[in-house]
Design a protein that fits this description.
It is a single chain. With 355 residues, the protein is of the alpha+beta class. Helices cover 15% and strands 39% of the residues. The protein is built from 5 helices and 23 strands. Strands 16-17-18-19-23-22-21-20 form an 8-stranded antiparallel sheet. Strands 3-4-5-6-7 form a 5-stranded antiparallel sheet, with no helix packed on it. Strands 8, 9, 10, 11 and 12 form a 5-stranded antiparallel sheet that branches. The chain is elongated.
């Protein structure tokens, strides 16, 4: 009996000690790399620089020979300097910041600056690249050698991908007025071991909108609901806005027929408008000059009549299919013929244009 009791006590003691040892090893062992627990507790550090609040050395795209220190607060700042010139200063703001990895450089951060030399009526842009950890400058992309105005970055397209730095830019044609560049191109840069160099400059195929048709969804590749940036990229041609797309503004695409315009609200395309002298038509063949009777013959019971505040007749085509809900084409008539028409959301098309 004593023999059996002793064996039982020894077994319990061994089990207890084994459990304590296992618990100690589990507590002291490091969390497996890549585990969910490790990712939550110690996420990888990708940057330690406050890019929006620091001092940068800039030339405003070679406005001066030597870089001028510019201190930015929340991404914007102003600077005066003897190097800039008497009675002049720069207004500078950051347009975009992107992070990524480039061959031979590792993790980098690209910062696109917009600089407005004052007093003046123009702006310049400058793209510089820094080490993500620590913020030391690596270099900048070269200035474009063009005969007239410098091309304008489309900030939202700046990216680091496929071992390259790339962005869309709007270039000026020989007859383009200031502020209305007509050529959209994709430009890429790489690091050659000493500096950034341009690797490619490719025209983006532009849409011939004179051959496209208007529907309640938009025109050609341009669709209602797209942002201004998406419209420009889909069209393959620069978009010029009258005001700020984040509020309400009208815009036109370079190279499109006269009389074709677009309305944006809160940076979303809400209407496409056609008026004289444009000959662009709807998918059903309706255009400026179409008669009232032709509209009713074409759209039947899907068209209704309204009257504007000044007494003009307005016909509204509202497709009954569920997928077209709240999308219409509004035809404004004068003397029984279409004077202009707008396709898009009902509220926007009845307004006509931004105030």
């Amino acid at each position: 009996m004593d023999h059996m009791l002793g064996a039982l006590i020894r077994a319990v003691t061994v089990a207890f000690l084994s459990g304590c040892l296992a618990l100690t090893m589990a507590v002291s062992a490091p969390t497996a790399q890549g585990s969910a627990r490790g990712a939550e507790v110690t996420p990888p550090r990708t940057e330690d620089v406050d890019w929006m609040n620091r001092t940068y050395d800039l030339t405003c795209d070679d406005e001066v020979d030597e870089p001028v220190p510019v201190t930015l607060d929340n991404g914007a700042g102003s600077v005066t300097s003897d190097a800039i010139g008497p009675e002049r200063h720069w207004e500078v703001r950051i347009q975009r910041i992107v992070h990524g990895t480039l061959p031979r450089l590792g993790m980098v951060t690209a910062v696109l600056f917009r600089c407005e030399p004052q007093p003046s009526n123009y702006f310049t842009e400058e793209l510089r690249v820094y080490r993500t950890r620590g913020g030391a400058e690596i270099g900048r992309t070269p200035t474009f050698d063009v005969p007239a105005f410098s091309p304008e970055f489309r900030p939202e397209t700046l990216e680091i991908q496929d071992d390259r730095l790339s962005a869309d830019l709007a270039f000026y044609g020989d007859r383009d007025p200031h502020g209305q560049p007509s050529i959209l191109r994709r430009v890429t840069w790489t690091w050659d071991g000493r500096q950034f160099v341009k690797r490619s400059e490719t025209d983006l195929a532009g849409t011939d909108f004179s051959r496209e048709e208007v529907t309640v969804d938009g025109i050609g590749p341009v669709r209602i609901g797209m942002s201004a940036e998406e419209v420009e990229r889909a069209a393959g041609t620069p978009l010029t806005l009258v005001g700020d797309a984040s509020h309400c503004t009208d815009g036109t695409l370079a190279g499109t027929p006269d009389g074709l315009s677009m309305m944006f609200m809160q940076n979303s395309l809400v209407a496409v408008t056609v008026e004289t002298p444009s000959t662009v038509s709807t998918a059903s063949g309706m255009r400026v000059g179409t008669t009232r009777d032709e509209l009713f013959d074409t759209y039947g019971n899907e068209i209704t009549t309204e009257w504007t505040e000044d007494g003009a007749e307005r016909l509204i085509f509202a497709p009954t299919a569920p997928r077209f809900e709240k999308r219409v084409i509004v035809f404004d008539l004068a003397e029984g013929q279409v004077e202009r028409f707008s396709a898009g959301t009902r509220d926007a098309t009845t307004v006509g244009s931004c105030p």
